[in-house]
Fold:
Amino acid sequence: MYILGISAYYHDSAACLIKDGEIIAAAQEERFTRVKHDPNFPAKAIEYCIKEANIKANQIDNIVFYEKPFMKFERLLETYLAFAPKGFRSFAKAIPIWIKDKLFQKLLITRELSANLGKEIRWGDRLLFSEHHLSHAASAYYPSPFESAAVLTLDGVGEWTTTSLAIGKDNDLKVIKEIKFPHSIGLLYSSFTYYTGFKVNSGEYKIMGLAPYGEPRYVNLIKDNLILIAEDGSFQLDMSYFDYATGLTMTNKKFHKLFGGPPRQPDTDITQREMDLAASIQKITEEIVLKLIRGIANKTSERNLCLAGGVALNCVANGVLVRENIFDNIWIQPAAGDAGASLGAALSVWYLHHRKERKVLKNYDSMKGSYLGPEFSDKEIESELNSCGAIYKKLTENDLLDKISLELANEKAIGWMQGRMEFGPRALGGRSIIADPRSPKMQKQLNLKVKYRESFRPFAPSILYEHVSEWFELNTKSPYMLLVANVIKDKHLSITAEDEALFGIDKLNITRSIVPAITHVDYSARIQTVHKETNPRYHSLISKFNEKTGCPIIVNTSFNIRGQPIICTPTDAFKCFMGTGLDVLAIGNYILYKDEQTIRKNKLDYELD
Structure:
């Protein structure tokens, strides 16, 4: 039985196809359309999933949408009625869109399926709807390596729910507790994202990266005015400070007055205030999540915990959870946001609607390393490179790994496109930019000359799993780059008292460890452990680099530039290669050097479309 899961019409549209409970393919629509966070119907992602499964569209037994539109519309109406007459402008703007495009989403989805998959099928008869947070919970529990678990989901808002606790046992999954809109840890975090000048639903990870530069000096102000936190982690917001329930912005004048001025305008200088605000909301988030987890541990007898929802991508909070040892085991869905809800929707139909037996993989989750996207054959790679006018060489795998590991040791910035594309927001060695973590100049160079993004942003280490405890304060797997831990002290470098006293961005230029390119200003790193079983080529590359340098780590950041989705195809890879400061490009067994390319067009012609 084939089941197609879909998420769409908000942000990060995606599709996932499962066969008899096995995940066959999953991808975000943005990777194909090149529109970052594309919210539209995931036609191209669906097309890919069907192609990957090598089936015809009429073989799909169920299509399931990740949430219930009527319940969402109910929340919209009830919220406006509760706050009336405040927010009439927002109401007047939203209602026509809902009536035209969203209220009758079943009809809209059916039309899209007919247009893209064929009019001869009565797609409405095969279409089902899950609930938003149930989709998140299913995406976390069913692929996990646990036969039973507590499941916590946290995000902005689904239909009504913003936070939920579920219990999974075998093939069953039941939600037992919910916190409902407008009280939302995700929307609280997004309010500070907006206030500090970053884009909501995409800039939250920037706040997380900015937090170590600041001091959490606003924690008490936030707790005294914005939020009431109970001992079990339940929380309630004072909505008089926020505008997101009825307005066109996240925060209002009362919020701005509390923190001493209007929101920072995007692309203006980041000040100490923004750094301190980031540190403060990060600290509040960690407190809430910790209390929620302790409450769950006290409420249930479960020793395993699964996490999903956008807040579950806060890897700093996740690292705190692991260190606290509240649960024996924690597993986090790598596509924890709305894209991953397409997977959860499909799995919920298989297990809860069709009541199928669940088989757990011993010691492994069923996400296949999250390598669930497209892969390209040698013939396809050569065809696309030739169309781009690229100069390339084809090598054996051993020669390729030897050359790339040598170029890494020579401090070259390398585009690395190998195997299937990752599902979720993280590049995991399939569509990555890689570099030498020992280089003190690499962090700034990659940010400014390759990624074209803010200089404060940290980079992640990919490390051979067998060496992780030798370099980081971590003794568990982190294959999906969802845990932050500190570099161990014997890898630290001594710094002067003068350097120690620096504030804000001035901290950036201090070399703090023997792997400075992946060491954040608080000595932390967002770690990806690399496993031979799920990505043998990436594991072999890092092993070669380790043989040459004695360092089992490489820098790993997503293969894209600021404001663009991660690359998908060889053409995407070549365009990004030519439009940035990358030195070398490796696609499959093909290697390209920037100084050998004969094309001399303006570099902007080669930025991702």
